[in-house]
Write a structure and sequence with these properties.
Blueprint (H helix, E strand, L loop, with lengths): L2 H25 L3 H29 L7 H4 L1 H19 L8 H34 L1
């Protein structure tokens, strides 16, 4: 497994783990809540990880061109989610503090799909420039 694949896996599972830890801060240490928060947040990260994995696999054919770009679908939603959940844990909403844990994964899924498509286009451009040079 390459270093980029390890970063991909780290991004895929670090964001749901941090979401679970911040859920403990907000809701208390309830097992059902922790499992639910982790499960809901791992879904968008699996989509981003799949995009990144496929893009990383395609990078092997072109001498590794675009490997850092291939990590965008995993890392950008993970960073957004981590900042979002940590800010909600530090500054919780007075009314309905759990809304972030229901709405967040939907936005992260959209972000993973959008960054996956953008990363695919950018990787194609980088690879075509690399093969032309």
């Amino acid at each position: 497994m390459s270093g980029y694949a390890k970063i991909n896996l780290l991004g895929m599972f670090l964001m749901p783990a941090i979401a679970t830890l911040t859920g403990i801060v907000i809701f208390g240490p309830r097992v059902d809540t922790m499992v639910t928060v982790f499960s809901i947040n791992v879904i968008p990260m699996l989509f981003g990880g799949l995009f990144s994995g496929l893009l990383l696999r395609g990078c092997r054919k072109y001498g590794g061109a675009g490997r850092a770009i291939a990590l965008w679908p995993t890392l950008l939603p993970a960073i957004i989610g981590i900042v979002w959940y940590l800010s909600d844990a530090l500054f919780p909403a007075e009314q309905d503090p759990g809304r972030v844990y229901i709405a967040g994964p939907q936005y992260l899924l959209a972000a993973a799909i959008a960054t996956g498509l953008v990363a695919w286009v950018v990787c194609v451009i980088v690879r075509s420039q690399r093969s032309a040079a």
